[in-house]
């Protein structure tokens, strides 16, 4: 069965302390890997889409990378406002439709 | 450009009741997907609507049903509510090309928080 696994489940950083979040996946026919940010009680907010191994995308302090088996979300010099749950999802082609399969997320807390 | 909207924001029901949640898709999008997100979990796919028909369903029982209207807005109906149905219900809109291929990103609404007592 196709799976998406995120690690760590939770991460606490000091402001300015860089780190990386991991998303490993097993899926046949990957059509894209998505990163979303979710604040408590809110809907996921789109960050990045990656389509092929070696691809990288950046937005402010965030950089996403993709290999054949996993994706990393690198956070450089984080600020308290980066605190959120980061969700990874794979875009899968099904019979007659396609959808997103999500991991459980990594809860990031950045302390001042 | 209008984003995805959902109503209501919060809802409290009792076991056995029925509930209807509503979603307006982002302008230019023709596909609506519904997800259930339990506390501490990632969103789980319920079903997807395209051209006013359900064209895909996740591992959810038939008491979860939906509709899509000509303006691409959608409803999620849940009958015979159970305690485990308590969750954040998310609607996402996207564009589907001919042949069922999902193009681009799914954009999510703010969600409806359902509590079943």
Provide an overview of this structure.
The complex is a heterodimer of chains A (112) and B (117). Chain A is an all-beta fold and 112 residues long. Chain A is built from no helices and 11 strands. In chain A, the strands form 2 sheets. In chain A, strands 2, 4, 5, 9, 10 and 11 form a 6-stranded mixed beta sheet that branches. In chain A, strands 1-3-8-7-6 form a 5-stranded antiparallel beta sheet, with no helix packed on it. In chain A, strand 4 (30-38) and strand 5 form a beta hairpin. The radius of gyration of chain A is 14 Å and the shape is globular. Chain A starts with a strand and ends with a strand. Chain B is mainly β and 117 residues long. Chain B has no helices and 11 strands. Chain B has strands at 5-7, 10-13, 19-24, 31-37, 44-50, 53-57, 64-68, 74-78, 87-96, 102-108, 112-116. In chain B, the strands form 2 sheets. In chain B, strands 2, 4, 5, 6, 9, 10 and 11 form a 7-stranded mixed beta sheet that branches. A 4-stranded antiparallel beta sheet of chain B has the order 1-3-8-7, with no helix packed on it. The termini of chain B are far apart. The mean pLDDT of chain B is 92. At the A-B interface, strand 4, strand 5, strand 9 and strand 10 of A face strand 5, strand 9 and strand 10 of B.
């Amino acid at each position: 069965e196709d799976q998406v696994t995120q690690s760590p489940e939770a991460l606490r950083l000091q402001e300015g302390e860089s780190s990386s979040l991991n998303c490993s996946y097993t899926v046949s026919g990957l059509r894209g890997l998505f990163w979303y940010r979710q604040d408590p009680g809110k809907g996921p907010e789109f960050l990045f889409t990656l389509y092929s191994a070696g691809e990288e995308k950046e937005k402010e302090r965030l950089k996403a990378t993709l290999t054949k088996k996993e994706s990393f979300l690198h956070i450089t010099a984080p600020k308290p406002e980066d605190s959120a749950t980061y969700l990874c999802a794979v875009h899968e082609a099904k019979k007659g439709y396609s959808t997103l399969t999500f991991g459980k997320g990594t809860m990031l807390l950045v302390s001042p | 450009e209008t984003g995805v909207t959902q109503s209501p924001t919060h809802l409290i029901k009792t076991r056995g009741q029925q509930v209807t949640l509503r979603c307006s898709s982002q302008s230019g999008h023709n596909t609506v997907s519904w997800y259930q997100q339990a506390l501490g979990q990632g969103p789980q796919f319920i079903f997807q609507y395209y051209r006013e028909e359900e064209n895909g369903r996740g591992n959810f029982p038939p008491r979860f049903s939906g509709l899509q209207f000509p303006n691409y807005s959608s409803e999620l109906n849940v009958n015979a509510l159970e305690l485990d149905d308590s969750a954040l219900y998310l609607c996402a809109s996207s564009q589907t090309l001919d042949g069922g291929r999902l193009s681009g990103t799914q954009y999510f609404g703010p969600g409806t928080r359902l509590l079943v007592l």
